[in-house]
């Protein structure tokens, strides 16, 4: 039985372990070992501000955490507590897109729709908080999931990591248009 709940501080060690396993296995065809090692703990890791905000969600199966993913009402677009230049300023829903952040699925649970389930829950929560669009910085591995859910590419660029390592990422956005979405939900197929 899959259930989704907000993460709390005591979940953080299990989340860090899940993230390391997800990066090691699911990203291995998209990023080199050097890229994954340089990004882990800096780009890929827990941002505790999202846990404190109650916007970092966990998926559990029989009480075991199998995936995590967040939405955010804060300026920072990606990364763990250790990302350089972290900016936790609050966004204004009237003018800013909410952020989608930090999606990691345990390798044994990939391609079972769990990432989509958490993303849907994040989108719903961000919409309820008054945001009308969602922005994210995707990994090469993550781009498929977001493209399927209607996010479009705004930029392709590289993050500079320690040791001269570069990490290719993709900027993506989705506009939440309530009028269109209500029509889609109610129109007969
Ligand atoms: C990206 C990630 C979160 C996707 O989670 P997931 O639970 O496997 O995704 P879902 O099962 O909900 O996938 C939904 C759809 O997205 C697409 N998709 C997801 N992963 C894909 C992949 N590796 N290749 C091609 N399509 C993919 C498919 O259309 C899929 O539907 P299908 O399985 O019926 O074909 C997971 O691969 C992951 O944790 N990757 C490592 C960490 C990472 O890079 N996270 C992204 C941070 S931006």
Secondary structure elements and their pairing?
Layout: E1 2-6, H1 12-26, H2 33-39, H3 48-53, E2 56-61, E3 64-72, E4 98-105, H4 114-128, E5 133-138, H5 143-148, E6 152-160, E7 166-175, H6 178-186
Parallel strand pairs: 4-5
Antiparallel strand pairs: 1-2, 2-3, 3-4, 5-7, 6-7
The chain binds coenzyme A.
Coenzyme A binds near residues 22, 103, 110, 116 and 138.
Please describe what this structure looks like:
The chain is α+β, with helices and mostly antiparallel strands and 189 residues long. It has a single domain (2-186), classed as Gcn5-related N-acetyltransferase (GNAT) (Aminopeptidase, 3-Layer(aba) Sandwich), CATH 3.40.630. The chain is 31% helix and 28% strand. The protein is built from six helices and seven strands, in the order βαααβββαβαββα. Strands 1-2-3-4-5-7-6 form a seven-stranded mixed β-sheet. α4 links the parallel β4 and β5. The radius of gyration is 16 Å and the shape is globular. The chain starts with a strand and ends with a helix. The model has no long low-confidence stretch (mean pLDDT 95). The structure holds coenzyme A. Residues 22, 26-27, 103-105, 110-116, 138-139, 141-142, 144-145, 148 line the site of coenzyme A.
- Major beta-sheet overview: 7 strands, mixed
Shape: globular
Q: Please tell me the CATH architecture by its name.
A: 3-Layer(aba) Sandwich
Estimated radius of gyration: 16 Å
CATH class: Alpha Beta
Order of helices and strands: EHHHEEEHEHEEH
> What small molecules does this complex bind?
coenzyme A
Strand elements, count: 7
The assigned structural class equals alpha+beta
Q: Residue share in helices?
A: 25-40%
């Amino acid at each position: 039985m899959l259930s989704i709940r907000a993460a709390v501080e005591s979940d953080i060690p299990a989340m860090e372990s899940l993230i390391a396993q997800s990066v090691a296995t699911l990203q291995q065809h998209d990023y080199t070992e050097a890229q994954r090692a340089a990004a882990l703990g800096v780009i890929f890791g827990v941002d505790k501000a999202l846990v404190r905000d109650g916007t970092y969600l966990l998926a559990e199966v029989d009480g075991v955490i199998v995936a995590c993913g967040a939405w955010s009402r804060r300026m920072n677009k990606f990364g763990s507590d250790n990302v350089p230049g972290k900016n936790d300023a609050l966004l204004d829903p009237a003018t800013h897109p909410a952020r989608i952040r930090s999606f990691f699925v345990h390798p044994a649970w990939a391609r079972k729709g769990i990432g989509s389930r958490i993303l849907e829950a994040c989108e719903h929560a961000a919409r309820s908080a008054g945001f009308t669009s969602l922005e994210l910085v995707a990994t090469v591995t993550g781009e498929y999931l977001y493209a399927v859910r209607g996010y479009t590419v705004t930029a392709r660029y590289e993050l500079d990591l320690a040791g001269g390592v570069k990490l290719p990422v993709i900027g993506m956005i989705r506009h939440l248009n309530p009028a269109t979405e209500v029509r889609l939900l109610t129109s007969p197929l």
